[in-house]
């Protein structure tokens, strides 16, 4: 199996690299300290297995998994045991290694990966089932030369992240090289509203509003003072 | 007496491969001061979430240097930082000092 390592910590990469060199079933193709660079690589190269750190600045291991359309087998690595339950919610995750990793535990995880069969289909969320299938509800985003279709009604949040935007849907997240201004004009006005200079939300997905923040899915998003009147106008207030 | 760092894990990992052992030691000598510095800066700037992230990363170095008791302290302190609770700061920073001294003396 060819594999890559994604971990922002050099020490962790060096240890996993050594283990991969000692394991006859693995060929290490590349290693990355940054998830965005890894996504670019993964969009151009086939990889059988990723050793993926969960806790990375800006873009976590889970963000990366949600960004990949067809993720390969993944062995998560972390200094934290607390993510284990969340980890196994993803079909592509083979095993979860807690740092410091031992050679025995590493080899056991690789053996699991060899025998692991990735489920052929990705389960659809309730939202995407309900979403209209008209082409006007589709948004195509360019992620490293691949056009990926997103069902617009399933989007609940769009966040500006430097030169990128993070599009969150009920099923997956997508990191796209674009701006809030560009995506705003592609979205239906009746569904979406910019509530802060860094956030556009789907107002149908709001759970509650408290003071100057909105709870949408599991995210608490600030509402800027200047955008608050427009948000209140859109609500069906009793 | 405070728990003292050691190279048991690194020795075990290297399995006698001196080049690999030297590589790990060189990484820890370079990476640990950077991580400690980043942690202190976040704390000075009162960026508690960032400080917790740096403690999270330091946990790996703590375990690599065989500091089992201090590892639990780091877990607790990381969680406390998210609640802006600094009651374990002094104790944690003493561990960092011990690690820094140990790493500086490594050849």
Characterise the protein shown here:
The complex is a heterodimer of chains A (238) and B (107). Chain A is α/β, with parallel strands linked by helices and 238 residues long. In chain A, 26% of the residues lie in helices and 33% in strands. Chain A has helices at 10-22, 35-42, 61-67, 84-87, 103-115, 126-130, 180-184, 228-234, and strands at residues 2-6, 27-32, 49-53, 73-78, 93-98, 138-143, 146-151, 155-161, 164-169, 173-176, 192-196, 199-202, 206-210, 213-216, 219-222. Chain A has a 5-stranded parallel beta sheet with strand order 2-1-3-4-5. In chain A, strands 10-9-8-12-11 form a 5-stranded antiparallel beta sheet. Chain A has a 3-stranded antiparallel beta sheet with strand order 13-14-15, with no helix packed on it. In chain A, strand 4, helix 4 and strand 5 (93-98) form a beta-alpha-beta unit. Chain A is elongated. Chain B is mainly alpha-helical. Chain B is built from 5 helices and no strands. Chain B starts with 7 loop residues before the first helix and ends with a helix. The mean pLDDT of chain B is 94. Classes of the chains: A alpha/beta (238), B mainly alpha (107).
């Amino acid at each position: 199996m060819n594999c890559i390592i994604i971990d922002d910590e050099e020490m962790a990469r060096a240890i996993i690299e050594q283990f991969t060199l000692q394991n006859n079933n693995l060929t290490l193709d590349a290693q990355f300290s940054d998830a965005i660079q890894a996504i670019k690589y993964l969009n151009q190269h086939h990889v059988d297995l990723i050793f993926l750190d969960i806790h990375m600045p800006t873009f976590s291991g889970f963000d990366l998994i949600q960004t990949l359309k067809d993720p390969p087998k993944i062995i998560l690595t972390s200094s934290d045991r607390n993510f284990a339950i969340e980890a196994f919610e993803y079909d592509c995750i083979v095993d979860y290694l807690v740092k410091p990793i031992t050679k025995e535990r590493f080899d056991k995880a690789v053996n699991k990966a060899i025998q692991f069969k990735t489920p052929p289909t990705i389960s659809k969320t309730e939202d995407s089932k309900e979403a209209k299938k008209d082409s006007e509800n589709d948004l195509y985003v360019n992620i490293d030369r691949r056009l990926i279709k997103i069902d617009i009604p399933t989007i609940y949040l769009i966040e500006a992240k430097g030169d990128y935007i993070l599009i969150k849907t009920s099923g997956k997240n997508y990191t796209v090289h674009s701006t809030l201004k560009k995506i705003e004009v592609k979205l239906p006005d009746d569904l979406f509203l910019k509530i802060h200079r860094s956030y556009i939300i789907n107002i149908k997905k709001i759970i509650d509003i408290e003071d100057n923040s909105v709870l949408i899915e599991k995210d608490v998003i600030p509402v800027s003072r200047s955008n608050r009147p427009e948000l209140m106008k859109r609500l069906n207030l009793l | 007496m405070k728990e003292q760092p050691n190279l048991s894990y690194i020795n075990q990992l290297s399995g006698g491969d001196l080049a690999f052992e030297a590589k790990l030691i060189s990484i820890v000598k370079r990476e640990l001061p950077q991580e400690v510095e980043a942690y202190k800066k976040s704390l000075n700037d009162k960026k508690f979430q960032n400080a917790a992230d740096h403690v999270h990363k330091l946990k790996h170095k703590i375990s690599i240097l065989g500091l089992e008791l201090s590892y639990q302290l780091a877990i607790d302190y990381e969680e406390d930082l998210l609640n802006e609770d600094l009651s374990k700061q002094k104790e944690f920073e003493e561990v960092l000092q011990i690690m820094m001294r140990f790493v500086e003396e490594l050849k």
